[in-house]
Each structure stands twice: as structure tokens, then as C-alpha cells.
């Protein structure tokens, strides 16, 4: 199969229109866009009973992570013998909670293109959930290696193995958002990545990871991207990892973290995110992305919601802005540098948290048929 590759330079992807076996693709400043792509789901080409009777071979990267573990659980619970799940696990990762599940565990690091290629072989569907979340500057290189080059390795392996669909876990961090002072403009799937976002190391890495997905689309790969908001809530697989976001909310609830930024963002239940990945596989339109957000809340509204829960000891929030924000951000940067661990408080995360970001979930409601859980129910699932 002849593949068309796009070239990158310091100014971004070269513009032009190219053709491959699945139609025409235009390369624009913000990445590859399909000029003519089939909107119907190719899994509908076979009767659903025939598909599941054969046991669809599925690969999940990042299965020992917060989202990946819940996705594995949901796939097995919903489809049983209708799917054959293979999961990638890095050496040294805790995969004990996967024991007893009908999954094939393969040792593969997404930084290793050969190992990824071997893991992908034979899979019809790939869920790429592996990734790194960090906001401090000392993690810039690791973010690029994991989120960008790791995605590149997965995309290349899927192309080489003729995978039928890749569902990639992205983030609202890759969705364009208005700068402070530009109003409360709602972002959607077509919002272009903004220049100010490039200064945030995590946002930049997720944006570049999406460009790798769009390069795969241009070369003939069927890709759907899932863009969750801040993912919270308890998973359903015993022993699976928790998230730092849950820990932060527990700290607010217990009164140990009274710091409140000025901004707003979107939140969503972990279980809804896993269900959205499955819906993206079955119903998503090739080449598209879907924002997965249950509610948009200001951080002050978040504090109020947590303070209203029974037993809450949440204190009156202290506004983090100006000098206080700089001090907190520098403290997070220094702590991360000294410990070598990611910090959710950094100079860029404080700046990001000052943005009043709002995200539209209309497309996920209409095209994926997602029904979102109430955030109050989500809070109660993991806060005692």
C-alpha cells in the first residue's frame, strides 16, 4: 500500500491536498483534515452478532493506568467472549489487579517501536490509553517522549498491521481555549489550538499527539480521538490505580487544601470516559474527536459543591492569583525538581487554572449517545 506522509518543519505541517486509498486529505496549519471521509462506522459492515461471535481481538495500551484499567473492565463486562483483550504492561508496573481477568498481558513499553509493533499485530481495534500527565517544566522531555513519540509508535504500528480502528485517548488540554480576557467562549471539537497553550508543556504534548493521529489518518488509518475533561471518580476494578485529581478533591473536602484558582474547566466521571471510548469505537466518525465532559464548573463552584457534601470540613477558599499564584507555582516546580515526581501545582498549571474554560459536549451526546452521570453522584463514589 502506498502511503502519503506529511512533512513537518518549524512552521508546522506543509499545506496541500493529498490522496490515498480512503479519499482526499487536506493538510492545513492546524493539522490534517479529511476532505472526504466516510462517516459511517465500518464495524457496521458485518452483522453485530457475527462480529462478536468471532471474538474481536483488541489491544489496550496503558491498561495499568486510571482510564485504561476501567476500560478493560468495561470491555470484558459488556462483551465477554465477544472480545479478546490483549493489554500492554511496562516492566515494573503493578499489573496484579489484572490477574484473574481473561486478558493476555504482553510486556511492551510504548517508547519501544519494535515492542509496540509486536503487541499490535493481529489486533482489529486498538485503544491507546497510555500517556503521562505532568505540568512542571522538568517533565517537558518525558512528556514529549511518552505522549508524542509514544503515540507515533502506536500509529505506525497500526498502519503496518492494518488495524481497523484506533481509538486514542486525548484530552481537553488539546482543544483550543480562549485566553484570559477574551471572554467565556465555549470550546468545541473544531476550536483551534491557541498560541498561549503552547507554553503549557502538557497541553503542547497532547496537541502534538493529536497531530500524530491526524498524520495516521492522512496515511489511511481510521482514528477516533476521545477528549475527556478532568477525570474523577472511583473505578470498578478492585486494586486499580486512583488518580491525583481524586486526591486533590479529597483534600478540599477534608479542609487540607483551601487554595482556589479563578478559572473554570470541565469534569467527567471515569465510568463515563470508559463508556465514551467504547462508543467512539462503535459509533464514532472516522477522523473526528469527541469532547467528553459532564459539567463545566468554576473552581469556586467546585469548592461549594464539595463543601455541601455530608461531613465536609472544607474551609473558606483562599483565592490563588497574582503573587500568591506565583509562589505556589514556584513551590510546585521546586518540589517536582527535588523529588523527580510530577506535581499538579506548577507555574503553568496555576496559569491554566486561571482560565475560565468551558467545553461543549453536544457532539458526544448526539453522535455517541453518551448519558453523563451527575457530578454529585461521582463525588459520593469516592469521597466518604
> For the record, what is the CATH homologous superfamily label of the domain at 15-39 and 49-238 and 265-296 and 358-373?
NAD(P)-binding Rossmann-like Domain
Give the strand order of the largest sheet, numbering strands 1, 2, ... along the chain.
8-7-6-9-10-12-16
Question: How widely separated are the two ends?
Answer: 56 Å
CATH level-two architecture of the domain at 15-39 and 49-238 and 265-296 and 358-373: 3-Layer(aba) Sandwich
Shape: globular
CATH topology of the domain at 15-39 and 49-238 and 265-296 and 358-373: Rossmann fold
- Helical fraction: 25-40%
Structural class: alpha/beta
Describe it.
The protein is of the alpha/beta class. It has a domain of 263 residues: Rossmann fold. It is built from 12 helices and 19 strands. The strands form 6 sheets. The chain has a 7-stranded parallel β-sheet with strand order 8-7-6-9-10-12-16, with helices on both faces. It has a 3-stranded antiparallel β-sheet with strand order 3-4-5, covered by helices on one side. The protein is globular. The N terminus is likely disordered.
Amino acid at each position: 500500500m502506498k502511503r502519503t506522509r506529511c512533512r513537518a518543519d518549524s512552521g508546522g505541517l506543509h499545506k496541500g491536498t493529498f490522496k490515498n486509498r480512503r479519499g482526499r486529505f487536506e493538510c492545513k496549519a492546524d493539522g490534517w483534515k479529511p476532505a472526504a471521509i466516510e462517516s459511517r462506522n465500518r464495524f457496521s459492515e458485518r452483522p453485530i452478532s457475527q462480529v462478536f461471535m468471532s471474538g474481536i481481538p483488541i489491544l489496550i495500551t496503558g491498561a495499568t493506568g486510571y482510564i485504561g484499567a476501567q476500560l478493560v473492565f468495561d470491555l470484558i463486562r459488556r462483551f465477554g467472549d465477544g472480545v479478546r483483550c490483549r493489554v500492554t504492561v511496562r516492566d515494573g508496573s503493578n499489573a496484579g489487579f489484572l490477574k484473574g481477568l481473561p486478558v493476555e498481558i504482553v510486556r511492551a513499553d510504548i517508547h519501544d517501536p519494535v515492542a509496540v509493533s509486536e503487541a499490535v499485530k493481529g489486533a482489529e481495534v486498538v485503544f491507546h490509553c497510555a500517556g503521562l500527565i505532568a505540568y512542571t517544566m522538568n517533565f517537558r522531555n518525558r512528556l514529549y517522549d511518552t505522549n508524542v513519540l509514544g503515540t507515533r509508535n502506536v500509529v505506525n504500528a497500526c498502519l503496518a498491521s492494518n488495524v481497523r480502528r484506533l481509538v486514542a485517548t486525548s484530552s481537553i488540554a488539546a482543544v483550543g481555549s480562549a485566553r484570559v480576557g477574551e471572554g467565556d467562549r465555549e470550546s468545541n471539537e473544531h476550536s483551534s489550538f491557541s498560541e498561549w497553550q503552547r507554553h503549557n508543556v502538557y497541553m503542547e504534548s497532547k496537541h502534538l499527539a493529536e497531530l500524530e493521529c491526524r498524520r495516521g489518518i492522512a496515511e489511511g488509518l481510521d482514528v477516533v480521538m476521545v477528549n475527556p475533561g478532568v477525570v474523577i471518580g472511583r473505578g470498578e476494578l478492585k486494586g486499580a490505580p486512583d488518580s491525583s485529581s481524586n486526591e486533590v478533591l479529597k483534600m478540599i473536602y477534608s479542609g487540607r487544601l483551601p487554595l482556589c484558582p479563578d478559572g473554570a474547566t470541565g469534569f467527567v466521571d471515569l465510568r463515563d470516559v470508559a463508556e465514551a471510548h467504547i462508543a467512539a469505537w462503535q459509533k464514532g466518525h472516522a477522523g473526528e474527536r469527541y469532547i467528553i465532559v459532564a459539567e463545566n464548573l468554576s473552581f469556586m463552584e467546585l469548592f461549594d459543591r464539595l463543601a455541601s457534601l455530608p461531613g465536609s470540613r472544607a474551609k473558606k477558599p483562599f483565592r490563588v492569583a497574582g503573587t500568591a499564584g506565583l509562589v505556589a507555582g514556584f513551590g510546585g516546580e521546586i518540589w517536582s525538581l527535588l523529588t523527580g515526581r510530577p506535581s499538579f501545582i506548577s507555574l503553568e498549571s496555576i496559569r491554566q487554572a486561571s482560565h475560565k474554560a468551558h467545553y461543549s459536549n453536544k457532539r458526544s451526546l448526539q453522535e455517541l449517545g453518551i448519558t453523563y452521570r451527575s457530578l454529585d453522584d461521582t463525588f459520593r463514589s469516592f469521597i466518604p
